[in-house]
């Protein structure tokens, strides 16, 4: 009688050798996403960052943020393109950090897969490392977890956490905003990484569009449009704080422009945003029209072409716009801060979008 083979990790679906190969392939990219304060290299149990660099601060405040990229990973999987989703992950994390004025210092990532395909995992990490370079922070560690039986062999998800630092006296936020301040909008690169459940429902399920469909309004295929990486604003925002007075930033993610800007508007003040100051990219109007999505629903789900906003005093507007232009960021005055009553919303969008 033959004996039943003993159980093993490999038989359960976990390939340790593939995981080791993925680590080998990603090392080159992780090395490129460094800072002088990083101690050691990839492979330790924890990433090390030399905190003595913070001695130059009088009262350093550490800022922390964590996020993922939601169902945009499904587009990457279906497209077979894995080296851009990391840009999205970094942008979602570091641009939350910079809202309070914090400089992003380092990130860690978590990649969960149904089966480790070393080249795919390395491509994801490559994108994360490139995003960290764009954000000026280091990628000091991460984890790749294989979950056979829970995820399909080609399925994956990503998450990340970041740490930044800001001088206590330079902390930005609602306490600084005053009546008369001006709201500067910064153009989004596209959908960024929010609202993809709605986008996928409209474009795939309702409209029946395929990812390889060429869309004249986009000037490229649907898949290429949907995979456009999230713009990373952290260094642009920090450049503003170093050259002119800034009272607050708001990162436009889930909830849309109004809800996210309202998070930094103090009681008693009101922000009026004029839709006529910009024209949303075709992808936003396409989703709205194909899905017959009401404008309020669209605006609370998608960024509608604005990825970050800065609230500045009137005397800082010209310098801020000039700095952003020099850095290649399309920006414009979108509204202003006025006194508000008890029944006035913190943020209100008025008028129609430019056409």
Automatic annotation (TrEMBL):
<dbReference type="InterPro" id="IPR036676">
    <property type="entry name" value="PurM-like_C_sf"/>
</dbReference>
<keyword id="KW-0067">ATP-binding</keyword>
<keyword id="KW-0963">Cytoplasm</keyword>
<comment type="pathway">
    <text>Purine metabolism; IMP biosynthesis via de novo pathway; 5-amino-1-(5-phospho-D-ribosyl)imidazole from N(2)-formyl-N(1)-(5-phospho-D-ribosyl)glycinamide: step 2/2.</text>
</comment>
<dbReference type="InterPro" id="IPR010918">
    <property type="entry name" value="PurM-like_C_dom"/>
</dbReference>
<dbReference type="GO" id="GO:0004641">
    <property type="term" value="F:phosphoribosylformylglycinamidine cyclo-ligase activity"/>
</dbReference>
<keyword id="KW-0547">Nucleotide-binding</keyword>
<feature type="domain" description="PurM-like N-terminal">
    <location>
        <begin position="58"/>
        <end position="166"/>
    </location>
</feature>
<dbReference type="Pfam" id="PF00586">
    <property type="entry name" value="AIRS"/>
</dbReference>
<dbReference type="InterPro" id="IPR036921">
    <property type="entry name" value="PurM-like_N_sf"/>
</dbReference>
<dbReference type="InterPro" id="IPR004733">
    <property type="entry name" value="PurM_cligase"/>
</dbReference>
<dbReference type="InterPro" id="IPR016188">
    <property type="entry name" value="PurM-like_N"/>
</dbReference>
<feature type="domain" description="PurM-like C-terminal">
    <location>
        <begin position="179"/>
        <end position="344"/>
    </location>
</feature>
<keyword id="KW-0436">Ligase</keyword>
<keyword id="KW-0658">Purine biosynthesis</keyword>
<dbReference type="Pfam" id="PF02769">
    <property type="entry name" value="AIRS_C"/>
</dbReference>
<protein>
    <recommendedName>
        <fullName>Phosphoribosylformylglycinamidine cyclo-ligase</fullName>
        <ecNumber>6.3.3.1</ecNumber>
    </recommendedName>
</protein>
<comment type="similarity">
    <text>Belongs to the AIR synthase family.</text>
</comment>
């Amino acid at each position: 009688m033959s004996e039943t083979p003993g159980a093993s990790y490999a038989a359960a679906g976990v390939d340790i050798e593939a995981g080791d190969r993925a680590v080998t392939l990603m090392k080159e990219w992780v090395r490129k996403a460094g800072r002088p304060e990083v101690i050691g290299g990839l492979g330790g149990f924890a990433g090390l960052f030399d905190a003595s660099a913070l001695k130059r601060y009088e009262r350093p405040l550490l800022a922390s943020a964590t996020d993922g990229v939601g169902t945009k990973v499904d587009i990457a999987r279906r497209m077979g393109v894995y080296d851009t989703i990391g840009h999205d992950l970094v942008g979602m994390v570091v641009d939350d950090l910079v809202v309070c004025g914090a400089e992003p210092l380092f990130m860690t990532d978590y990649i969960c897969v149904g089966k480790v395909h070393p080249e795919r995992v390395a491509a994801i990490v490559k994108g994360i490392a490139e995003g960290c370079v764009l954000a000026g922070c280091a990628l000091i560690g991460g984890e790749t977890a294989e979950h056979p039986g829970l995820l399909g062999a080609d399925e994956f998800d990503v998450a990340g956490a970041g740490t930044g630092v800001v001088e206590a006296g330079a902390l930005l936020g609602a306490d600084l905003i005053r009546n008369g301040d001006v709201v500067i909008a910064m153009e989004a690169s596209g959908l960024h990484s929010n609202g993809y459940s709605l986008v996928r429902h409209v474009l795939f399920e309702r409209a029946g569009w395929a990812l390889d469909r060429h869309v004249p309004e986009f000037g490229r295929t649907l898949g290429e449009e949907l995979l456009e990486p999230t713009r990373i604003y952290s260094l642009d925002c920090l450049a503003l704080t170093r050259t002119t007075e800034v009272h607050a930033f708001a990162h436009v993610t889930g909830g849309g422009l109004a809800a996210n800007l309202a998070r930094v508007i103090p009681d008693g003040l009101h922000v009026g945003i004029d839709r006529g100051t910009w024209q949303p990219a075709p992808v936003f109007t396409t989703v709205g029209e194909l899905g017959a999505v009401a404008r309020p629903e669209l605006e609370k789900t998608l960024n509608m072409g604005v990825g970050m906003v800065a609230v500045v005093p009137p005397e800082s507007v010209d310098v801020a716009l000039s700095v952003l232009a020099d850095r290649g960021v399309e920006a414009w005055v979108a509204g202003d801060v006025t006194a508000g009553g008890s029944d006035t919303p913190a943020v209100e969008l008025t008028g129609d979008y430019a056409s």
